[in-house]
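Need the bound structure for flavin-adenine dinucleotide, inputs here:
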Amino acid sequence: MVLRVGPSWGVYPAPGVVFGGPPKNRVGGTPTRTREPRMLPESSHTRHYRLIRLHPPENAFKMYDSKNSMADYDLIVVGGGPAGYVGAIRAGQLGKKVACVEMDRAGGTCLNWGCIPTKSLLKNAEVYQMMAHHAGDFGLTVEGLKFDWEKVIGRSRKVADKLAGGIEMLFKKNKIDYIRGEASVVKPGVVEVTDKDGKKSELTGAKMLIATGVVSREMPGFPFNGKSVIGSKQAMVLSAQPKDIVIIGAGAIGIEFAYFFNAFGTKVTVVEMLPNILPVEDTEVSVALEKSLTKQGIRLLTGTKVDKAETTNKGVRLTVSGKTQETIEAEIALVAIGVSPLMPQGLKLETDPKGWIKTDDNYETSVKGIYGAGDIIGPPWLAHVASYEAIQAVEGMFAGKKPKKVSVFPGCTYCQPQVASVGLTERAAKEKGLKFKVGKFPFLASGKALAVGESEGFVKLLFGEKHGEVIGAHIIGADATEMIAELGLAITLEATHEELISTIHAHPTLSEAIHEAAEQSQGHAIHI
Ligand SMILES: Cc1cc2nc3c(=O)[nH]c(=O)nc-3n(C[C@H](O)[C@H](O)[C@H](O)COP(=O)(O)OP(=O)(O)OC[C@H]3O[C@@H](n4cnc5c(N)ncnc54)[C@H](O)[C@@H]3O)c2cc1C
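Answer from helper R.:
Posting the output first, comments after.
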């Protein structure tokens, strides 16, 4: 008999496994504990339905749903991003007949115009920075270091193309009909697709998943013009490196581009209305990053708002006030102030006051049979959250599972030093009136960090005072975005400082700093 600890990515739980047990009564613990699965004997009844769910006979869904007995598909997914393509594949794995309609390219914003191409650009920036400014630290001399802007951008586009092509292969493998064109929802169960030549066709589906995502938000009175006023999409394919750029908004996207352009020598100014950059992060982390980026040469105007923005012959002119009152001129303004919903045409679905599609606990919209997942249903706008929501929605539709809503999720910013967090910030924990202990460990005291020349930053952990469970984790430093996974799991499993301490972390690794931060919360870190 195989014992599994929880439903894993792409694997249906073993028969008879019942997840959950009494959750620990802890202040910060939100998730239902998934350890200690109870194994129940599988009855022939359960086995019958499990097998039908996994291997439905031809047209099985149609047999179950008489109202939609003539539908072409069990599920039509509108949008092929991390919500749409992942949801479509999951439904395909569950034996459903699925179509995914995409008007641009499979992979959505994430693979084509977001997560992946930016990370590729950021890696170029990191390598260049390292060679330009730190080669000497390693006893290396680099002479005549140059870069080819076109090739920097080209590498990012190649990586994006390769991955988008990979999704198309996955569609084939999972027998999903990938339909290129713009979908409009005519009525429940009916989608009209207009292809690039304007040719229209109609698809019918028993259920629909809307996963159309978002677009960059424009600043009122300062619209994108594709030249001097741009959004993130244009910023990653500029044909020439700008001499200077002003970035409005210091969230993850604004900061990643600030790091990228500055690394290659563009003069960067960031204007942020709120008191700190990365305002959703723990303040201590934001302040540490501000110091680091300022040292790297980026001008950060926090607590500063744009009063007037206009285009000029040479580029843009902004009048700002707050911590400083001045006029900033630059070749380009990158507006990174947030996103707006990209609603499909046709049937109106109920939205919240900010325009995000409203969904219930099953991810079903105001219209029966139409579901929503990903960025279009509102924050947090993250690829991993979008995929999680889509899987939950689809398993709720076709696998008889109760969908879970998003509670614990990591957030990452991939500048250098990197920032990653999961759970509550110290600010949020205080606002909730929680009693907690903090454990902190600087990378300056980590052997591995010193060995690899990455001693900037720290790990900061928050533990509930009563039970000692991790309620928040914050890392600033090299590889922070890789290290955060351990702490996401810790929160999901309601792990305590004791459990982190009793987990042997390999030496020498950067993740030893997590172990030490847990020890420090109890007053007995070894290396500080
Ligand atoms: C610059 C940038 C960097 C980012 N970096 C990260 C990161 O590092 N990590 C992270 O987690 N998130 C990141 N994100 C956010 C991430 O890209 C999104 O959260 C994620 O793509 C959301 O997935 P989605 O499927 O909901 O929407 P999308 O990925 O936007 O996919 C929606 C798809 O639907 C299609 N579509 C829309 N309307 C229709 C229609 N009517 N018919 C047919 N197709 C339609 C669109 O063409 C699009 O391909 C970044 C975003 C940007 C802009």
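Comments: The pocket of flavin-adenine dinucleotide is lined by residues 78-84, 101-104, 108-110, 114-115, 118, 182-183, 211-214, 232, 253, 342, 344, 374-376, 381-384, 386 (CB under 6 Å). The chain has a mean pLDDT of 89.
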